[in-house]
């Protein structure tokens, strides 16, 4: 393998090693720790729920002990005094609300049940013991078997589809003396209210399932035979989430209910987040270290003009892999967070949806119970009173119809039909339907259940008189209601509406008439007289209940678990534009069961795609694209940096060589011009003078000043303060450059004029100079020449001013530059403001000029102005008419014209000739003036 491939291979191997180490750390160390912590927390949650249920049971036992150790209860078992029952157990709604009590049993020492009463407002009020068992008298026998051992007792009892917290205590005197006269039992249904109260108290979303519950899968059902007392087991449920299971046992050590507590996913999520964060951090650190090591270790390659492409490609590959790894971690984390948010939002919305449906169904039962109480509260009900009472109920709660179904034995059939006919139903008869749907007189049977009242009356023609006993499904529900004393519902049946068959169900609420006043007990006969019937279209009821909840976008199914599997679906609600493919976990479902009319209904809610979209922004989907883009950009950037490093070093070498050559040329140029270079570091006060500077003052190499104090001692005292002030102006940024001329003492004691120039090259963050560089130039000869020139200028100025000849110098644009005293006197303007700097055309002399024909000439037309414009100066005959105060004269004009400017000397000479005399012009030609004319600027 070529040696140039080795760095790339080393880099990739290091990265693979880091990734593997992070994965091993995550899978074998971090996540197991959090999973164990999560399971430990779930086991503690399960124990807390279990202990809370037992505390609820213990509170009931304490309440029971006060009743069992009571002289009145002790006497009642012996005397059977009904006053004791009527004064203490007549108001069961109060007992339920204040004590949470649902049942009371009193059993004597012979095992006979002296008193029993079961009441549950959620189940419609008073219920019979047969509701709590699959066989007649089964629950009573359970109570009697427990009472056979007269010892205090508390535990769980499975009664039908109900779990009961049961407490028992021997009946003794208030002093606890005397022989036991039996056992008293208090019971409480472990229903939704108790479960919700316990959930709120413990903050744990647990569930309790009886073995008959169809929501349990086969694995969970097998726990009833495998779990021992006090044992727990962790395993996934139907929703694939881990749960902790614990069994509840009855007094006979038989499993009665399964306690199911979910393993909290927030702990494992925290573990995954931690492991991912650690992984990202380790990967980033590793990438940095590996990249830095690769660059440092390969610097020697760059200095040998070898190819760096492979090293750069290796590091770029490493960056890409690291970026993709980080992107994967971030994407997974954000996706988990998003799904948890969606699931939490869905569970809250689904619970609200299910609660709304259950409340609506409970309200239906309450309204039907109101109709039942209406019938039980009066001696007789006529059709008009029935219509007025039930019409508002039917409209408010979407009843298809409300019926009164009478119980008629065979011997009373004719009398019942005749009475109905006398009440205005002339064609009334007890009827049934043929298979073709036609009404015919009902066949003979021992008991009939004809529909006597029907609301709405508009559709009662075919319903009045129909015997529901002819329909086995409806007869079974009506018989269940009579037997249990509770509402009973049919499975899904076909309901006729406007010639169409729609899915619906019927509910029957039994109505009794008691032969004894007060609350019925074991010694009071209750006569079943009929049922209040309600007919419902499933779609109407469920859609109305669903519309009252929010949000939308939830797929809702109502299942009747008491029906055969092929006919369990009661209602399937799919929102408009709803889709079952939610794009998230397909097992995301929220379900709850309820008892409705003696049947078990299960409500299942699934999210659809609309709900998933509305629950949050799935920004995690953008992470792969953004991460890939950033990784590519970062890799290209690093590749550019690495490849440019070599070019930068080569460029530095080239620039260094060029700089050395440039420095040589620059030094030669300065030394050839006689200038010296100085370099000053203000921070260290180090001052460097080039050899040319030292030679300029007569010193040898390295013999001159090395610091500013020694340098300033050579400056002439008269120039020192000014020079330092000019230096301070530049240091304080008041002047762009340092420029000063001063005298410096040479080695032989003489002085030379020196021109010092310099500039600060760099400053720190506070503006203080860090380096200043400049030049020194010997300007002694220039100074001497300027002095001589100044003296000459003074002499010439004196000669010009003292000259008796009037003279004026004009610029090319006619502006007066110089004028002597003689000219001012000659022009008569010696007392006026000086004309210097003004146009000659603004001064009009007191005389006028004429051409030979006598035409006046303007000043601008004079020959001198023609010369100023660059034309040849031709002077013709001029006529001067001076004022009386001004002498006449001859103008002698000398002019010079160039492309840049024109200078004219006007020479005036007095004349005594007549004013009107004509003078011959004379061209003096171009004057012999110096190439550096006097007073030019």
Structural key phrases:
single chain; 937 residues; alpha+beta; 6-stranded antiparallel β-sheet; 36 strands; elongated; disordered C terminus
Your description of this structure?
By secondary structure, this protein is an alpha+beta fold. Strand 13 and strand 14 (439-441) form a beta hairpin. Residues 302-307, 516-524 and 872-937 have low confidence and may be disordered. The protein has 23 helices and 36 strands. A six-stranded antiparallel β-sheet has the order 3-2-1-6-5-4, sandwiched between helices. Strands 11, 16, 17, 18, 19 and 20 form a six-stranded antiparallel β-sheet that branches.
Short description:
This protein has 937 residues and is of the alpha+beta class. The chain is built from 23 helices and 36 strands. α1 (6-68) packs parallel to α11.
Estimated share of beta-strand residues: 15-25%
**Total helical elements:** 23
Main beta sheet strand tally, sense and closure = 6 strands, antiparallel
Mean pLDDT: 77
What's the alpha carbon Rg, rounded to whole Å?
A: 60 Å
**Which strand order does the major sheet show?**
3-2-1-6-5-4
User: How many beta-strand elements?
Assistant: 36
N-C termini distance: 82 Å
Topology:
Elements: H1 6-68, H2 71-79, H3 82-88, H4 92-99, E1 103-108, E2 113-120, E3 125-127, H5 138-147, E4 153-159, E5 162-170, E6 182-189, H6 192-202, E7 207-210, H7 218-221, H8 223-226, E8 232-236, E9 242-249, E10 255-262, H9 265-297, H10 299-302, H11 309-377, H12 383-396, E11 401-406, E12 408-409, H13 413-422, E13 431-433, E14 439-441, E15 447-448, E16 451-455, H14 472-484, E17 488-489, E18 493-497, E19 500-514, E20 526-537, H15 538-547, E21 554-560, E22 569-573, E23 590-596, E24 599-607, H16 609-614, H17 623-673, E25 676-681, E26 686-689, H18 691-696, H19 708-712, H20 717-731, E27 738-745, E28 751-763, E29 769-778, H21 780-802, E30 808-810, E31 816-819, H22 821-827, E32 848-850, E33 856-857, H23 863-868, E34 879-881, E35 889-897, E36 902-910
Antiparallel strand pairs: 1-2, 1-6, 2-3, 4-5, 5-6, 7-10, 8-9, 9-10, 11-16, 11-20, 12-15, 13-14, 17-19, 18-19, 19-20, 21-22, 21-24, 23-24, 25-26, 25-29, 27-28, 28-29, 30-31, 30-36, 32-33, 32-34, 35-36
Helix pairs in contact: 1-9, 1-11, 9-11, 11-15, 11-17
């Amino acid at each position: 393998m070529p040696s140039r491939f080795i760095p790339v291979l080393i880099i990739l191997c290091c990265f693979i090693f880091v990734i593997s180490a992070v994965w091993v750390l995550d899978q074998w160390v971090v996540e197991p720790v959090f999973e164990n912590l999560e399971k430990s927390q779930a086991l503690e949650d399960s124990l807390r729920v279990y202990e809370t249920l037992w505390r609820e049971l213990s509170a009931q036992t304490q309440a029971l002990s006060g009743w069992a150790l009571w002289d009145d209860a002790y006497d009642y078992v012996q005397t059977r005094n009904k006053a004791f029952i009527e004064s203490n157990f007549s108001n069961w709604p109060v007992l339920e609300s204040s004590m949470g009590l649902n049942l009371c049993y009193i059993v004597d020492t012979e095992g006979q049940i002296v008193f029993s009463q079961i009441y549950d407002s959620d189940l419609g009020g008073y219920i019979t013991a047969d509701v709590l068992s699959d066989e007649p008298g089964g629950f009573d026998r359970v109570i009697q078997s427990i009472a056979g051992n007269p010892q205090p007792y508390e535990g769980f009892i499975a009664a039908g589809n109900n779990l009961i917290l049961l407490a028992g205590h021997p009946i003794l005197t208030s002093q606890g003396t005397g022989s036991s006269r039996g056992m008293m039992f208090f019971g409480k249904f472990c229903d939704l209210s108790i479960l919700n109260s316990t959930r709120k108290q413990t903050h744990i979303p647990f569930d309790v399932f009886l073995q008959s519950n169809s929501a349990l899968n086969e694995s969970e059902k097998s726990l009833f035979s495998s779990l021992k007392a006090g044992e727990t087991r962790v395993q996934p449920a139907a929703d694939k989430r881990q749960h902790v299971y614990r069994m509840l046992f009855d007094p006979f050590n038989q499993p009665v209910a399964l306690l199911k507590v979910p393993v909290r996913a927030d702990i494992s999520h925290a573990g995954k987040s931690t492991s991912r964060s650690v992984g990202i951090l380790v990967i980033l650190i590793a990438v940095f270290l590996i990249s830095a090591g690769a660059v440092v270790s390969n610097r020697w390659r760059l200095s040998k003009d070898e190819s760096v492409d492979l090293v750069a490609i290796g590091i770029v590959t490493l960056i890409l892999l690291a970026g993709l790894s980080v992107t994967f971690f971030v994407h997974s984390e954000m996706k988990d967070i998003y799904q948890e948010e969606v699931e939490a939002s869905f569970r809250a919305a689904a619970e609200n949806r299910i609660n709304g449906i259950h409340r609506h169904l409970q309200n239906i039962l309450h309204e039907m119970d109101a109709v039942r109480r209406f019938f039980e509260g009066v001696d007789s009900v006529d059709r008009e009173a029935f219509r007025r009472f039930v019409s508002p109920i039917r409209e408010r709660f979407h009843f298809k119809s409300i019926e009164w179904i009478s119980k008629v034995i065979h011997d009373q059939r004719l009398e019942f039909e005749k009475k109905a006919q006398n009440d205005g139903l002339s064609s009334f008869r007890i009827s049934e339907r043929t298979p073709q749907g036609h009404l015919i007189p009902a066949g003979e049977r021992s008991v009939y259940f004809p529909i006597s009242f029907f609301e709405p009356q508009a559709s009662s023609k075919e319903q009045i008189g129909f015997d529901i006993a002819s329909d086995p499904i409806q007869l079974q529900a009506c018989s269940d209601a009579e037997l249990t004393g509770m509402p009973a519902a049919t499975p899904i049946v076909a309901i006729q509406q406007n010639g169409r068959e729609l899915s619906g169900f019927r509910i029957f609420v039994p109505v009794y008439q008691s032969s004894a006043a007060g609350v019925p007990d074991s010694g009071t006969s209750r006569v079943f007289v009929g049922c209040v019937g309600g007919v419902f279209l499933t779609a109407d009821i469920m859609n109305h209940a669903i519309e009252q909840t929010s949000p939308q976008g939830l797929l809702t199914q109502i299942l009747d678990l008491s029906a055969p599997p092929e006919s369990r679906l009661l209602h399937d609600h799919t929102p408009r534009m709803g889709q079952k493919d939610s794009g998230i976990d397909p097992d995301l479902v929220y379900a709850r069961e309820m008892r409705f009319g003696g049947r078990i209904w299960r409500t299942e809610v699934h999210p659809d795609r609309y709900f998933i979209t509305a629950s949050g922004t799935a920004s995690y989907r953008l992470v792969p694209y953004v991460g890939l883009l950033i990784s590519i950009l970062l890799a290209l950037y690093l590749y550019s940096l690495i490849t440019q490093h070599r070019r930068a070093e080569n460029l530095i070498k080239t620039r260094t060589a060029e700089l050395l050559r440039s420095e040589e040329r620059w030094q030669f140029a300065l030394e050839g011009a006689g200038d010296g270079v100085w370099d000053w570091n203000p921070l260290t006060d180090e001052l460097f003078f080039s050899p040319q500077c030292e030679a300029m003052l007569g010193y040898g190499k390295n013999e001159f000043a090395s610091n500013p104090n020694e340098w300033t001692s050579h400056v002439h005292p008269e120039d020192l303060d000014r020079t330092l002030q000019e230096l301070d102006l530049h240091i304080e940024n008041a002047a762009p450059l340092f420029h000063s001329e001063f005298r410096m003492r040479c080695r032989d004691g003489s002085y030379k004029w020196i021109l010092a120039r310099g500039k600060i090259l760099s400053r720190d963050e506070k503006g203080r100079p860090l380096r200043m560089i400049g030049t020194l130039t010997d300007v002694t000869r220039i100074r001497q020449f300027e002095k001589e020139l100044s003296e000459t200028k003074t002499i010439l100025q004196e000669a010009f001013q003292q000259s008796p000849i009037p003279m004026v110098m004009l610029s090319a644009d006619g502006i007066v530059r110089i004028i002597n005293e003689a000219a001012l006197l000659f022009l008569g303007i010696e007392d006026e403001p000086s004309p210097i700097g003004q146009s000659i055309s603004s001064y009009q002399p007191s005389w006028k000029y004429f051409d030979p024909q006598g035409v006046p000439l303007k000043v601008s037309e004079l020959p001198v102005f023609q010369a100023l414009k660059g034309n040849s100066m031709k002077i013709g005959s001029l006529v001067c008419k001076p004022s009386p105060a001004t002498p006449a004269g001859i103008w002698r004009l000398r002019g010079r014209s160039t492309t840049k400017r024109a200078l004219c000397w006007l020479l005036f000479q007095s004349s005594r000739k007549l004013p009107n005399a004509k003078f011959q012009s004379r061209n003096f030609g171009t004057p012999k003036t110096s190439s550096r004319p006097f007073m030019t600027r």
